[in-house]
Design brief:
Structural class: mainly alpha
Number of strands: 0
Low-confidence stretches: 212-216
Helix content: over 70%
Number of helices: 20
Distance between the termini: 46 Å
Largest sheet: none
Order of helices and strands: HHHHHHHHHHHHHHHHHHHH
Length: about 450
């Protein structure tokens, strides 16, 4: 008789394959596909049928409980930045200061600054009109600005809190979000350069077309808020989280027992930092610019509506994660990896990469991988913040047609499937591979 140690990983592979078929072949909603797959996988893995429902509830609750505020308020902040023109001001100011000759570098820097505060999809939609405007005014290939923009947004999405992937993994592994942000910034900027301006040099012969989306509305410069107000409104969460991290790392143990330290740590937590940021943005990007609360509230509500399905899909990934934990499968896989010669960081990256290729969604791949490698993380003693970044790197590899981001890039730049694979999919793979290399290098020093 075949042992469970052999059967369970086979069931996992079959479950992921089943999920892929439901989403890609039958076009079933991703949230429903994840719930159905999680239930069938729970049965296949031998879970007590009376406990499956509670496992689903726990997976949903734990995921949404740790992420609902971050996703919702992040979407509100992004919408306020979009409607007020703050994100456009950041992008155009950086591009103007760097000049036309350095358009790849300026777009990359501008997109990374915008990407701190906006989810990938929101940032992409927001920056696309600017990319096409630049391409038209300078008479250049739209991909010359588009690839650096997509690279910068993807790197921030995969590595930097308060984006959902890193925050979810940090919560699952018990990592310090501030340290993840600090380490993530260290490894992010070299990857921005490689996957953006440098990579474009190798695919410059591929010409992006002017799609029907190129005429998306954007504001005149006179209507935009100042650069200072725009950048401060965007980076307040980052500033607060980094401040708390530096205080935590470089202050004395005696100071850690004080009320001032507790206040700083409170202000630097992702949820609180975003709440403070949205309150300030309501004034700086709304009331201060003559908008009334009704208009501002409409903008905030609109922002949340745009991420409702994203929130559910990530919650569905949380259900799948909980099934892997409650069935004991994550312990089996981690034990197997721990007995092998794989470096724990490489193993975490590899598992996340396989899940990304199979599932499409980077966030779902990240949270599922976190559940699998958690026992490995505890047993190996590896730096848990670097483990988070290794999973984040794996979760963005090789975007294929089961990833909505693949079609977004293809349609906006009017590319063929082959051209999208050679540009967007290759770009994501560069971010992933160089991401794990940078994480391994950083592990030498921390």
């Amino acid at each position: 008789m075949i042992s469970r140690d052999i059967l369970d990983p086979i069931f996992l592979v079959c479950g992921i394959g089943f999920l892929f078929v439901l989403i890609v072949r039958f076009k079933l909603n991703s949230f429903l596909s994840l719930l159905l797959t999680a239930m069938l996988l729970a049965l296949a893995l031998g879970m007590d049928i009376s406990k499956i429902s509670s496992s689903i509830t726990k997976g949903l609750g734990d995921t949404l409980g740790g992420l609902a505020i971050i996703l919702s308020i992040g979407a509100m902040l992004g919408k306020l930045m979009a409607d007020s023109g703050a994100a456009q001001r950041i992008a155009m100011s950086v591009i103007d200061n760097f000049g036309a000759k350095n358009v790849r570098w300026s777009v990359c820097i501008a997109s990374s600054l915008v990407g701190f505060a906006l989810f990938y999809e929101v940032g992409f939609i927001l920056l696309i009109p600017i990319v096409f405007t630049i391409a038209k005014e300078l008479n250049i290939n739209p991909l010359e600005a588009g690839i650096p923009m997509a690279a910068a947004l993807s790197v921030t999405h995969g590595f930097l809190p308060p984006h959902p992937g890193p925050v979810l993994i940090a919560g699952a592994l018990g990592a310090d979000v501030g340290l993840i942000l600090l380490y993530g910034c260290i490894i992010a900027f070299p990857i921005f350069i490689l996957a953006g301006p440098v990579f474009y040099s190798f695919v410059k012969d591929i010409k992006g077309g002017i799609s029907s989306f190129s005429d998306l509305e954007h504001k005149n410069k006179e209507e935009l808020p100042s650069f200072f107000i725009s950048i401060i409104s965007a980076l307040i969460p980052v500033i607060l989280m980094l401040m708390a991290t530096f205080i935590k790392q470089f202050s004395s143990e005696e100071f850690h027992q004080t009320t001032i330290y507790d206040i700083i740590e409170f202000l630097g937590s992702p949820n609180v930092a975003l709440i403070i940021a949205i309150c300030i943005a309501i004034y700086t990007l709304g009331l201060r610019r003559g908008k009334n609360m009704k208009e501002i509230s409409q903008s905030l509500e609109s922002g949340v509506k745009t991420i409702a399905m994203i929130l559910l899909v990530i919650a569905g990934g949380g259900v799948l994660k909980q099934v892997l934990i409650d069935s004991g499968l994550s312990n089996h896989i981690s034990h197997f990896i721990n007995q092998s010669s794989f470096h724990p960081l490489i193993a975490a990256w590899f598992i996340a990469a396989l899940l990304r290729i199979a599932l499409g969604s980077a966030s779902v791949a990240a949270i599922t991988a976190a559940a699998i490698v958690k026992p490995l993380s505890l047993a190996s003693g590896v730096n848990v913040e670097l483990m988070v970044l290794a999973i984040g790197a794996g979760s963005v590899i090789l975007s294929l047609p089961n990833d909505p981001g693949f079609w977004m890039f293809k349609e906006f730049f009017n590319l063929s499937i082959k051209q999208t694979l050679l540009t967007w999919s290759a770009l994501e793979t560069i971010i992933s591979v160089f991401g794990i290399i940078m994480v391994l290098l950083l592990s030498i020093f921390v």
